[in-house]
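lol so apparently i was supposed to do this last week
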Amino acid sequence: MWTTTNLTDAMQSCACCTPALQIGRRGLLGLAGALGASAMLPRFARAASGHYDALLLTCIDPRFPANTIAYMRSRDLIGKYSQVSLAGASIAVVADPFKSWRPAFWENLSASISLHHVPKVIVLNHRECGAAGIAYGADSIATKEAENATHMKVFAEFRAQMKEKHADLQVETGLMALDGTVDMFTA
Ligand SMILES: [Zn+2]
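anyway here it is w/ zinc ion bound
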């Protein structure tokens, strides 16, 4: 929650900064005091690196954040992942109508690899996704079978691009239903 302008609280809210706070918060704050103002902390000093478990790619659909957090909690991943949200999740990365969004995903993934050393990308597409309808037509998600086939095709293309760009990263691809259950789709 970004409900305060206090630097210390803001730093605690940023996952990028957590390791720095864990290993040297007093030192950083002491440095800030020595400089005369905490705002003088160089930005790179606040954006310290750490080791996290995954980058999560989700859609922007408002019906899913609560279930997504519950799912990540069920996997003991709360506080251990970074997140990118784009309409359609992996559809945004592979479908032509959204091609101008692709660099945002790849560049954020690169940033998370550099900052958080994530070894894995977890993709959570979801059922009844409007972006799927825009990209592939209403029939592509008209039935559960059609929806499964559409997302399997998307996941296959996403995995192929991941293999090309980041062959060392693991990839998990799942499809979340409105009740929060997730069907995993392997390669
Ligand atoms: Zn969606």
